[in-house]
Design brief:
By secondary structure, the chain is α/β, with parallel strands linked by helices. The chain contains six helices and ten strands. The strands form two sheets. Strands 1, 4, 5, 6, 7, 8, 9 and 10 form an eight-stranded mixed sheet that branches. Strands 2-3 form a two-stranded antiparallel ribbon. Helix 1 packs across helix 6 and helix 4 runs antiparallel to helix 6. The longest helix has 15 residues. It is globular.
Length: 240
């Protein structure tokens, strides 16, 4: 099962009578913590859904894919803790690779580069022990399976996948106008990066055309001001 048990948190701002009217969240917002599964080493992987579940606009944010590129987790945390959008269904995954995050390694605990393990254009890259090893077959890793199931379930209209350390918004694929606006809002250049075989965004764009793109954050930890800037840029995409 994709969703499994769901824990629901409601933060009520206006007491009784809170409701969804005309697509607007009148006086309450709900957050659902959605378990997706576990990593190779058994660490939980989950998504937080917040905002308007009825909205046609669905935004997916993945804070970390490579464990040694963790800066996006702070943006994901800020989004998950912030207000839910009234006109969009926002899904936030803090880290797709908690084993790599814990170890500070690019790959998962089996030494697979998750961003080479998705079906679109997949080919065998390198061998076990290489940092770009693509795995024995597409979706050979539990983490990429969980992500693929979530993408198929949500069918995001916009998907933002954070990486490091190039300090650029990738304009090679995905929604061009959204990419241009996001790059301008966060102060990064917009530049086309190589279209890697088996990447998550390449595959998501076969599920929902022109939906997904990569944001390459600068090296190191983001300052609190930078975290706010990136989170606000995502919120501008989701709408009020």
């Amino acid at each position: 099962m994709l969703l499994g048990a769901v824990v629901v948190f409601a933060a009520t701002c206006g007491g009784a009578g809170s409701s969804v009217r005309g697509g607007k969240v009148a006086a309450s917002e709900a957050r659902r913590v959605v378990p997706l599964g576990r990593s190779v080493q058994g660490r939980p992987i989950s998504a937080v859904e917040l905002g308007n579940r009825r909205a046609g606009r669905r935004v997916l944010v993945v804070g970390c894919v490579h464990g040694d590129e963790p800066a996006g987790t702070a943006v994901a945390d800020a989004l998950a803790a912030g207000p839910g959008p009234a006109h969009a269904d926002l899904w936030v995954v803090r880290s797709l690779n908690p084993d790599g995050t814990a170890a500070g390694t690019r790959d998962n605990a089996r030494g697979v580069d998750l961003n080479r393990n998705f079906p679109a254009g997949w080919r065998r890259i390198d061998a076990p022990g290489s940092v770009h090893y693509s795995g024995a077959k597409p979706l050979s890793e539990p983490e990429s399976v969980h992500a693929a199931r979530l993408v198929r379930r949500v069918r995001p209209t916009v998907g933002i996948w954070f990486h490091q350390h190039l300090a650029v918004v990738d304009g090679s694929e995905g929604p061009k106008e959204v990419e241009r606006r996001f790059a301008a809002d966060v102060g990064l250049p917009l530049r086309a990066l190589p279209d890697f075989a088996g990447s998550a965004t390449r595959w998501e764009n076969t599920v929902v055309r022109d939906s997904a793109f990569v944001v390459e954050l600068p090296a190191g930890r983001l300052s609190p001001e930078a975290v706010r800037r990136y989170a606000e840029a995502v919120r501008r995409i989701t709408g009020p």
